[in-house]
Amino acid sequence: MSTSKVVIVTGASQGIGAETVKAFRAQGHRVVATARSITPAVEADYVAVAGDIGDAATARRVVNAAIEHFGRVDTLVNNAGIFIAKPFTKYTAEDYAAILNVNLNGFFYITQYAIEAMQKHGSGHVVSITTTLADKANSKVPSVLASLTKGGLNAATRSLAIEYARAGIRANAVSPGVIKSPMHAPETHAALGAMHPVGRMGEMSDIVNAILYLDSAPFVTGEILHVDGGQSAGQ
């Protein structure tokens, strides 16, 4: 267990988050998973904490669980996110509040608490899931609130990387295109795939592999890794 990390994954009940949990556990790491709908659990290498990640109290419980059960925090994967594609003037106050709660509050509190824990042992890694739409807007996918929040996470990632570089703590992001996940109904896959220069959607494993790469790359920090089938390069 000397090489085993302690990894926190948010939005871990399904999709990319659940696959990320599986991948880290398969590599022998210990994982604390959190989501609103996750089933609470305590196992030798796995703890699940249910709650709203946008709530500071939930974020504190998650980090405390990592320290209580495994003694430290090595990696935080900020995967939880909400995406609502609407014309800008059609967003409601409820849409705005929900997206800010998960995409921004859900990043802010747990990242604060996790970095505090990482500082105690002089190393750590924060990797956040953003979106290629923050870099390459698409008129077919009106998504200002995704750009507002996830674009902010890209900027925050670079800022954290510089602020904590000498403290041994890295910060990176994975910027996906459209990925086959429970978020997208199968009947939409052909149209969504056509949005990418490579002509298909990405797989959840593409994002998980990018997370694993960044977590194993000690000289990489401040990187926004586009895993988007060429979308960010052009159309």
Automatic annotation (TrEMBL):
Secretion signal span: none
InterPro entries referenced in this protein's UniProt entry, alphabetically: NAD(P)-bd_dom_sf (IPR036291), SDR_fam (IPR002347)
Top-tier EC class: oxidoreductase
SUPFAM superfamilies named among the record's database cross-references: NAD(P)-binding Rossmann-fold domains (SSF51735)
Keywords for the protein's UniProt record, in alphabetical order: Oxidoreductase
Keyword Kinase: no
Coiled-coil regions listed in the entry: none
Pfam families: adh_short_C2 (PF13561)
GO molecular function, one term: oxidoreductase activity
E.C. designation(s): 1.1.1.385
Family to which the UniProt record says this protein belongs: Belongs to the short-chain dehydrogenases/reductases (SDR) family.
Protein name: Dihydroanticapsin 7-dehydrogenase
The organism of origin for this protein: Paraburkholderia hiiakae
